[in-house]
Write a structure and sequence with these properties.
The protein is mainly alpha-helical and 302 residues long. The chain has 13 helices and no strands.
Amino acid sequence: MRTWRGWKRIGRWGSFLGFTAPALLLILFFIILPALQTIALSFTDRQGDFVGLRNFVQVLSDPDTFNLPGFPPGPPPWGSIVHNAVWILLHLPLTIGLGLILAVLLDRVWGATFLKSIIFLGMVTPMIVGGVIIRFLFDENAGIATAILRAVGLTELGRSWTAYPETALPALILGSVWLWVGFSMILYSAGLATIPRDYYEAAAVDGAGPLQQFWYITIPSLRPVTMVIVAMTVLWELKIFDIVYTATLGGPGGATMVLALQMYFYAFRALEFHRAAAVATLLTLFTLIVGLWFVRTTRSPE
């Protein structure tokens, strides 16, 4: 009897390994091993000798990475790390706020599916194409955004935003909000469908108005969805590349340089593969911090 159970257990493990082994091998050879080689490369020089943290020191001391003397009130460039941080500080709350507002406004509204599909078009648009669209949106002659600004009297902002250091980074951030807000809207819409309507009916009986119901029922009930949106959005903001590459190529004058684009320039323009590996390792570290925060938050008793 015990022998039969043992063979049965071995059979289950064999089936498990048989189904998962191909995927595990692909992950091992195409993700884990290249990541480990990249980390090892970041600690060596061209000759393959171990240099410790020298590549990281050179990257972090590069003005393209940190240019804090020019930080506000001065215009960009501020360095790729600062630009990524500014992207997160502006893009994240705008994406979450607009996505939540749109999901609530379009909840149980006639034609909501059609409207949500239009808003979600930004997500299904290739980000390479999105960068080109952003460039045209804020163009002085062909841009819709600049035409609206001139129409309301803001003629100074009616110029090509991506051509000036003061406005290039805000243009990319605002454009990326349009491209990403559909993601948060769809997740919030799915989250709203899971909230029992009894909560709102009971709150209305107790005298709670729409704003009180939104603040005390909707927002707390959507907390797990918000955590997912925050984690996914921050990870996307950290590795942003294609929009910047097609819209500004990091310019003008490095005003829109981000970490992923800087890594690309190190590797394929300057052929400094060890510095590029150092930037990739920093990006990996930042994403691991976000991932660990997300895991701890989702596993908390609250």
